[in-house]
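Fig. S4 source data, part A: sequence.
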Amino acid sequence: MIQSGRATLTVSSSETDPSVITDLLGLEPTRVTKAGTRRKSGRVADHHTWSVDTGEVSNTIDDQTGSHALRVLVALIQPALGRLPNLPPDCEPRIWWSAYSDSGQGGFVLPADLAASIGMLGVDVYGTVHLDDPDGPESETPSP
């Protein structure tokens, strides 16, 4: 069952400075990476990345669909409604959605009202479900 999730609106750009994206969208980013910045992996970023992130969000008693983080993100970025199409051509907005399951199953529901809200934003959603490894160290039983 999905226990929690995380959602991020990311705008990647080859030329447009992240401060311009902030001004155009009317949102304060939670993270900005400029082209030329060395990443944790040691690679150097070849583009700017501007993002608004929810952090990890647990399911609620009322919402066990696995989409709570996505719903939180849509509420956070609501002020940008109608502004995303105004981004310069080098800007690529995406929503990244990850859900974390405590079992070998990762099903989740994208409620129709939430899908409609995302559709109004006009941004594609890239989703990933992370499953606990049933064969991982926690599932091993000691040998007699």
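Fig. S4 source data, part B ends here. Helices lie at 18-25, 68-76, 112-121.
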